[in-house]
Amino acid sequence: MTDLSGIVKAYDIRGVVGDQLHASLVRDFGAAFALLIKPDSPSVVIGHDMRDSSPELSSAFAEGVTSQGLDVISIGLASTDELYYASGSLNMPGAMFTASHNPAKYNGIKLCRSGASPVGQDSGLAEIRDTVEQGVPEFAGQHGTVSERDVLGEYADYLRNLVDLSGSRPLKVVVDAGNGMGGHTVPEVFGMNSAAVGAATPIEIVPMYFELDGNFPNHEANPLDPANLVDVQAKVREVGADLGLAFDGDADRCFVVDEKGDPVSPSAITALVAVRELAKEPGGAVIHNLITSKSVPEIVAEHGGKPVRTRVGHSFIKEKMAETGAIFGGEHSAHYYFRDFWRADTGMLAALHVLAALGEQDRPLSQLTAEYQRYSASGELNSTVDDQVARQMAVKDAFAARSGVTIDELDGLTVDLGDGRWFNLRPSNTEPLLRLNAEAPTDDAVRALADEVLAIVRA
């Protein structure tokens, strides 16, 4: 029995290619996935990113699926949200080969059921792991077939039909694809290769690092790290752009910088998109995880919506969206989920909303988003600790006795001091880390709060 706990994560399968992840193992994962979804679907759709190992691994997975009698539709090179589009529009389970923002030596598999419904530890991933560890049973029947289908144009049309940019004022937009899949999807969505589409979309794209290269020669495709935003910030200032967009490796997340080159927080983008979605459906529910700014539920409520708080993680967001019928959901990590996109996350659709909001009025983006950024945030501050539970309990004990303080443990430890200051302290699932996110009314107040908590964590 092989122990796969090191690569079967909470939401996906991910590991070092050749060491932890290789073709024969991936074939077994494909067969195990086929066994899981066989009662519900006769076919699986598969896509892959631009990493050197992705074509071989996705083919091995397809062999595993067809070995159990199911058919495969391969969409080839794709962003993760393009794979979700295929799963939703074709109403079949899907597998996406990507390690997102991880370095080149990694690869992985994101799985979903029909309609882009997520497969995580509690919704099939643990079962897949058990099947592979114990040995996948052979199927005596006829093997399935593999066919190819290009859905990129359909995906782009679908997104443009959700957000109409034809009435926008002209905008200059720097896009840093980080040599990831944004270099594949952005040209199609914005009509860079089509005069007809381009004429209907008054957006000038200034491309950066659109060449697909899984070795990431320019910088890591991880815009969550401020170091990887430096290039797009400089280019925005250099060319006088209205804004900049930076996508991660599999292009399911999008980060925004304003015309000054300053980052716009994902919480502000969540609030902005929520307001636009609520204008279409007044009174709708909007999901936000517990690390997003308090401005998000405040603004949702002010616009007649119903803010719903959840744990961090796409499976929790999507589950709560299904339960509440929510129209939209956002996370602090720049994952944005849309009911109109099968409750799946798509950074591209969020980017289109930002462009539409900017293009329909005359203010620069910094002024437009200022109303959505009400508080100062620390960003994620990580501490390496020997005992996550003990250090978290020490922080809890230090704050529990204070008057006016409320504490909950929905996801890690959340402490609200009742005066606009709050923080969340969560253990990493994969590393000996505690992750701190704090917010307060001013920069000085959030620094002081973060320092106070970190002094306890790192004592």
UniProtKB/TrEMBL annotation:
Biological processes, Gene Ontology terms: carbohydrate metabolic process
Domain Alpha-D-phosphohexomutase alpha/beta/alpha: 8-133, 154-261, 269-375
Keywords assigned by UniProt, alphabetized: Isomerase, Magnesium, Metal-binding, Phosphoprotein
Pfam hit, one: PGM_PMM_III
InterPro entries tied to this protein: A-D-PHexomutase_a/b/a-I (IPR005844), A-D-PHexomutase_a/b/a-I/II/III (IPR016055), A-D-PHexomutase_a/b/a-II (IPR005845), A-D-PHexomutase_a/b/a-III (IPR005846), A-D-PHexomutase_C (IPR005843), A-D-PHexomutase_C_sf (IPR036900), Alpha-D-phosphohexomutase_SF (IPR005841)
Cofactors (names): Mg(2+)
NCBIfam families xrefs: PRK09542.1 (NF007088)
PANTHER family per the UniProt record, alphabetical: PHOSPHOMANNOMUTASE (PTHR43771)
UniProt name for this protein: Phosphomannomutase
Organism field: Amycolatopsis marina
Lineage: Bacteria, Bacillati, Actinomycetota, Actinomycetes, Pseudonocardiales
